[in-house]
């Protein structure tokens, strides 16, 4: 079965001599590798989750897939066509098939445009002059459960949940095959989160969408994704089926993330795992295993050599760790 999307060893770098870092003297004039060799695939109709701390490179990866950042190495194959390195004019033909929901729902909407103008802007950009924009705006609003009179509103007149729905509607305007959803539930009440996730699930079933979801919310990942990747300092440290990773995490970082997930049962016996310190700077990556300065189960060879590439606990579950499945005994 041919994958809809295949990401192979993608690397995204930013010049560290530019911008604020350079002016403050924290740069040697080299580059920062925000995404450091990511690979995964996505099938049609599948939902893939990308999880990790802030600054791990999740959004940068999604923006590289969507053509908003330039990937210096690797390949991004969408329906067999390599998107990496395409000029904007060349990429434009793929924009109708790859849509993005941005992390800041209101900040991504121009305050000067009405909701109707925002929803129908993709048609104007793609030169689809045969569309009835009034009817299209009403159709898109109905798809996300909003009344037709919202077309005349401005972004500042929307609640957070309504703005998220407008983001979904705008992403669906050109009937895409893939949606890149960056923190779609951030800042929403739990009940509103549930409504939005149910909406995405209904639309996915109805339209056959594939979704890549970036989130800190592990409960969201557990309940709506088929597979997931755990990202740390621009790399995946574990990747596989969501059920497998939640049932048998192989990397200590994954274990720590799962252990930190809020537990609604007040009587539950929790085994919290505390990571040491803060995530290191991308300017000065740790040597050997990049996770070893924070790992509660670190051993001597973790400090002297990088893990030996991907190791598999099953055909669909892989990880990068010197001591996979043995972290329970690593303190002994």
What does this structure look like?
There is one protein chain. The chain has eleven helices and twelve strands. With 332 residues, it is α/β, with parallel strands linked by helices. The chain has a domain at 42-71 and 84-97 and 176-262 and 270-288: Rossmann fold (3-Layer(aba) Sandwich). Strands 6-7-8-3-9-10-12-11 form an eight-stranded mixed beta sheet, with helices on both faces. A four-stranded antiparallel beta sheet has the order 2-1-4-5, with helices on one face. Strand 4 and strand 5 form a beta hairpin. Helix 6 (160-172) runs parallel beside helix 7 (190-207). The mean pLDDT is 89.
Name the descriptors.
Rossmann fold, 332 residues, 4-stranded antiparallel sheet, 11 helices, single chain, alpha/beta, 8-stranded mixed sheet, 29% helix
CATH topology (fold) name of the domain at 42-71 and 84-97 and 176-262 and 270-288: Rossmann fold
Main pleated sheet: 8 strands, mixed
What is the level-2 CATH architecture name of the domain at 42-71 and 84-97 and 176-262 and 270-288? 3-Layer(aba) Sandwich
Ends distance? 45 Å
Order of helices and strands: EHEEHEEHEHHHEHEHEEHHHEE
Q: What count of helical segments does DSSP give?
A: 11
The computed structural class is alpha/beta
Query: Cα-atom Rg, whole angstroms?
Result: 21 Å
What general outline do the C-alpha atoms trace? Answer: globular
CATH top level label of the domain at 42-71 and 84-97 and 176-262 and 270-288: Alpha Beta
State which percent range the strand residues make up. 15-25%
Count all strands and give the number.
12
Poorly predicted tracts of residues: none
Mean pLDDT: 89
């Amino acid at each position: 079965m041919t994958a809809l999307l295949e990401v192979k060893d993608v690397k995204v770098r930013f010049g560290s001599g530019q911008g604020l870092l350079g002016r403050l003297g924290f740069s040697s004039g080299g580059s920062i590798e925000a995404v450091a060799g990511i690979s995964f695939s996505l099938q049609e109709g599948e939902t893939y989750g990308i999880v990790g701390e802030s600054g791990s490179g999740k959004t940068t990866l999604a923006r590289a897939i969507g053509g908003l950042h330039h990937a210096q190495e690797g390949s991004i194959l969408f329906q067999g066509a390599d998107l990496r390195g395409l000029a904007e004019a060349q990429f434009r033909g793929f924009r109708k098939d790859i849509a993005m929901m941005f992390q800041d729902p209101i900040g991504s909407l121009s305050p000067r445009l009405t909701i109707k103008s925002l929803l129908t802007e993709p048609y104007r950009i793609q030169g689809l002059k045969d569309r009835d924009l009034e009817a299209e705006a009403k159709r898109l609003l109905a798809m996300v459960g909003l009344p037709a009179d919202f077309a005349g509103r401005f972004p500042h007149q929307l609640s957070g949940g309504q703005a998220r729905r407008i983001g979904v509607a705008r992403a669906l305007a050109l009937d895409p095959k893939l949606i890149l959803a960056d923190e779609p539930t951030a800042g929403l009440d739990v009940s509103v989160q549930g409504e939005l996730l149910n909406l995405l699930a209904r639309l996915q079933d109805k339209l056959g969408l594939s979704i890549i979801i970036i989130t800190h919310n592990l409960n969201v990942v557990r309940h709506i994704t088929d597979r997931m990747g755990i990202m740390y300092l621009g790399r995946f440290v574990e990747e596989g089926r969501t059920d497998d990773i939640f049932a048998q995490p192989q990397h200590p970082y994954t274990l720590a993330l799962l252990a930190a997930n809020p537990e609604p049962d007040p009587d539950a016996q929790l085994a919290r795992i505390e990571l040491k310190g803060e995530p290191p700077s991308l300017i000065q990556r740790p040597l050997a295993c990049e996770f070893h300065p924070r790992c509660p189960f670190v051993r001597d060879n973790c400090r002297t050599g990088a893990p030996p590439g991907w190791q598999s606990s099953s055909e669909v579950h892989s990880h990068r760790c010197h001591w996979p499945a043995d972290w329970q005994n690593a303190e002994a």
